[in-house]
User: Fold these one by one.
Assistant:
Number 1:
Amino acid sequence: MSMTPRERVLAAMKQESLDRPPVAIFTQSATIGQMEKVGAAWPEAHKDANLMAKLGAAQADVFGFECVRAPFCLTAEAERLGCTVQVTKKDASPMLKEHPHKFDPMTGEYDEPNLMDPAEFVAGGRPAEAIKAMEILKKSHGENYCLVAGNTGPFTLTGHLVNTENMVFGMMMAPEEVSKWVDAVSPICKAYTQALSDAGADVIQMSEPSASTDMIAPDMFQDAAGKYISDVLASVKDAFSVLHICGDTAPIIPKMIGTGVTGLSIEEKVNPDKAVDIVAGKAVLVGNVGSVRPLFQGTPEEVAAAAKHCVEAGFNVISSGCGIAVSTPDANMEALVKAVKG
Amino acid sequence: MSSIREKGFIMDDLRISVETWDIKLAQRVAREAVDSGIPLKEIVAEGLGAGMARIGEMFGEGNLFLPQVIAASKTMEAALEVLRPYMEAGCDAMRGTVVMGTVKGDIHEIGKNVCCAMLRGAGYLVVDLGSDTGEDEFIDAAAAERAQIVGCSALMTTTLKAQESVVRYSDEAGRGFLIIIGGAPCSQEWCDQIHADGYSSSGAEIVDLVNGLMEKFDPPGRGTK
């Protein structure tokens, strides 16, 4: 008897031997094509649990990918904590408009991080809708599909609250002020991660793009982000943990593994063969077909070739390397599925 | 002032202040340089700019990372702020004018800000339009500032298209400037596809790109002064 998509993804997360890896988008998965076919679209699907669940299931329902995934952005937590976010477009991700806190290493002025209680945080705003969406997806798709929940890492979320450029500048001028903030944000990330798991998520994929080598030096990774990831993500109960970081992660892959997460989701800026070599079975590898090229801007043939490269290299879950661009053509999404499933 | 230091020491301190992101030193020595009568062009290009160029080089080689580059940029910007009152009277210190901005729908500014600092360090007058910049704003600013080059940054897959719009609208307006693009999801292929004039993959490359374009600067449609 053939495996269900759920069984296949669970087996992949345990690094069990498989005839082929699952093809499942663990990063942002929604496209305009899916929105039109299932009748759930941005911006409403960012704010309403029922629409969020419907659109989150669309990668499986429309194209045959082997998981469901929600929500679709990295701004829900920031909005809940007081950032002004523009959530108005069908064809573009929500946009942070204003950072609510002062953090200025040039003048030495820093707000104190007096943040919402974690229990209050998960009870309202868009994070609460995402938690509810997991409960809905558990009922509608949980039998046959793994539920992947996406959220934001503490270092990145801190940047949203205080201005990322100032935070990165602060790593040089006042690292103790940065730590104070990430210390304060972490319990919120931890509570949200566990709440998503408790609501039925099988995998929590936490994105921590501000810890990328494009943003901080590799030797800053552990203090800025790694130690927090161990606490807020790797320790999650009853779910697998996947850490997503963009850019060329080759220099920090060992540190990412060192956080203790189950899996790493990385971009195609690390060649798939090289990634598998570095990881050497110490974590599940998720990725890394290029979101921009080939998925958004390339042809179905280029998508198929990139997907096959990931399979041959030995990635455990075949996914996009970063969030799917919302205008990615249907034909390229279909080509990704077909290249892996046959 | 008790004594006037030799010019060489002042220039060294300007460079070192940027390389070590010593903001107070940069501000103090910039003031000293002006008081000593060193031409602005030298203060910027051979003092602060030399420091920024070294930072850019080390960034390009992978020996420095963004936090250090931002710290050096902020240091240079602080020194330029000291020089600004004198610059307005002597804009001929500048090698050309570049309008920079992050495209509409995108608020990511860090990479663009680093590029602005690199260009300022190289002696260009940079007009920074900030983030979420509409096509018209780029075109109007380029005309008002008589810019030779317009730089459009996009950090999201969803905002790449806005770079294409800037090129298209500018062409329709009979542009008299060159357009360069950058940002994580960009590539040379994308630059070629949308008929932009240049692509910079990082802050370390932008000065060479702009220098190269300035040498052969001759866009159709540019009027004479």
Number 2:
Amino acid sequence: MANHNAIEIRNVSKHYEGFTLHIDTLDIPKGCIMGLVGSNGAGKSTMIKAILDLIPLNSGEIAIHGESHHNPTVREDIGVVFDELKFPQIFTAKDVRLVMKGAYKNWDDALFENYLTQFNLPVKKKIKDFSRGMKMKLSLAAALAHHPKLLILDEATSGIDPVVRDEILDIFLAFIQDEEHTILASSHIISDIEKAADYVTFINNGKIVFCEEKDALMEEYRLVKCGNEELGSVDKSKIVGIRTNTFGAELLMRTEDVPEGFVSAKAGIEDIMLMMIKNEGAGR
Amino acid sequence: MKGLVIKDLLSVRTALPLLGVMLCVPMLIAVIPAAVGAQTVSAGVLSVLYAVLAGMFCILNVVTSLSFASYDEQCGWDTFGAALPVSRAKVVLARYGAGALLLLGSLAVLLLVQFFCLIGAGQPMDGYIPAAIFIVCLTVEGVMHPILYRFGAQIGGYIFAGTAMLFGLGMTALGRYMGEMSEMSEEEIDALIEQALSGHYFAIAAVIGVTVSVVLYGLSMLLSIRIYQKKEF
């Protein structure tokens, strides 16, 4: 496998009772923010766990920076932030520093201290007394303080107020300035992905529906509003997704397929995602 | 791996003062009267007190070690720990290492306490109680760790409590049975114990016991590694 990608996934499958994750090919280039979107149970967390080698695969290969994900040393270059801070509640930021320092060769005490100061996090306060935003910031500080090249975030911004989310997004953008750095972030909050991501991967029922550059994706689709009479004149095979109401319908169509004379508007990622889920099987 | 050992020891640090207080009780009873010039507690009473507290200390030590798994489950550490740049074998090794460190540290303190209590009360120092504690703690931890890795802290806790209860009942029943069966008088039993203590029997038994428990602990670690390597997070 070539080494210009941060993550390369080939023919990966993981079966559970009633659910299968199957990814033929997925490359996440270095130097980008990849947003991973999808509904609950779509397979986002399973995919992240597969990448981190937290679950054994039924088949397939995953490489991180060109090396097998089974090799624990590849995780030296990965910072991970889960949806919760996974340290005992009696721990303080100082304890977190002690543990992480013993776990990562590249741990940088000064950088961790800098993040604590930047995030206004108390050093001696117990985690149990932290707000959710503070916990996430501590998670992020711990994930960044060993100079990772790849940051993996699993619903890291969920449940956090917009102000803190915005601060965290700024940190992501600063992190990505170095073109060797990459972020893979799964989130339910599509606005975050729209704001920060360079690429978007949409996963549904364990399969990747699309993986595209965000700007190209948003250019590719349009939302077309039409009345019930106009709807009859639209070529059904060109409709990617449809949302009907009493007055007519809202159609998701490829930009080149929008019929002349119809009013269309830019489609957001959320629109694309929701309408594709609702019209699963309609194809794109 | 160092980070994981630190994490385990830090996570149970709130239980450590209780262990310390427990050990201080016999020490204070032995030392304070002598320090203020009062009549000291009899050596026999002190020995019994020490043995009882050492037994409780042993139980607490085991429970503290087994709480590593419970703390991990509560905060979801397992998932995070598995994402660190450490092989799964080393994650397990760190857990066993932390348990062993806790035990050895506790035994060092226990020996210190014993020194103050028994020497202070004019009794000879021996290593039987610390050896017994080492054997019991290491064996119980060796048995429990694979169970905790396989079934988790909650079910593992039930199995531990159930086994401890059955063991206690079994020992009581055995004691009664032997008491009924024995034709020896109390004096004869005392003489037998005295003879055992004065000879090398206890020392040999202690060495064998320590060796067996260490081997068992090692085998248990290998089994835990196998279980943990197949675990999904």
